[in-house]
Each structure stands twice: as structure tokens, then as C-alpha cells.
Amino acid sequence: MPIVSPFRRDPLVDGRQSERAMLVRRGVQRLMIQMRVSVLPEIPLVSGRRADLLCLSEKGEFSIVEIKSSIEDFRVDRKWPDYRLHCDRLYFATHPGVPVDIFPEDCGLILSDGYGAEILREAPETRMASATRKALTLRFARLASDRLLQAEWVANPYMTGDAAD
């Protein structure tokens, strides 16, 4: 492993996500892939917040999926309204052990069992400003490229020159 890396740390595994949250995430990611939607997890936004999942549709529309693994997880988190400024649609995703009636009606709702997911309620559309969309599209592309390169380096250490001779 290199001493100096262009990546500060692995943004996908930082220990903050519970095992249950990771299962919900996996199911939602599988659903998005089926819907031909590109997904990046743990995306830092310009507001300083971090979206659990940032999704980009073929039409160029952004959705944020906020994962909630328990009633308490939802009750203590008050940052999610800020996400509306960074997406066209806002969803909550959870698992069958969390009552769905706790989630606000003005947000979409996804139920995940870890192997797949289903949209129970579509999120209403609130279009982002065009300048915000352009900046977020560029951020999405840069982060996707950086993560792809990092994955390639992990899979093939000869690319970085760190392989043992």
C-alpha cells in the first residue's frame, strides 16, 4: 500500500453505517441498477452534508436516498431537509422492521430487504436550479472516476508500482 495516496480514506467504509443500513443500501442499489440509474454511496455535498446514496437517472435527474435503519435513527436525524437543495427527488429507504408511517408523506419511500427493494411511494419532483445541477453532475462524474481508479489500483497493485517484485 502506498504511503502517500490521492485518496484520504475509503469513503465507502467508514464504520458509521450499521450492518442493517448496509443491507438496506445493497437492496436499494440493486433496485437502482434494475432501473438503469447510476448510484454513488456516501457522497459529500457542497453544503457539508453527506448523502447516503446519490442517484443519477438517464434523464439527468438526481435523487438522494436517505437510509434509516431504525425509528431512533429517523428521530435523531434532522439534517435530511437540507438534502432537498441537492436533488430533484428525495427518498427514504428502510427495511421491513421499521414502521413506514413514521416517514414524511412529502418524500418518497423505498423498502429494502437487502436482496432487492421496492418503491412504496414515489418522491415528488422539485427541480434543482440549473447551476446546482451542473455542479452536482460534475461532482458525480469526478467522484465516480476517482472511485473507479481507486478500485482498479486495489485490484491491480502493479498499476501503482506498489507490487512486490
From TrEMBL:
InterPro entries: MmcB-like (IPR009394). It comes from the Bacteria. This is DNA repair protein MmcB-related protein. It comes from Aureimonas phyllosphaerae.
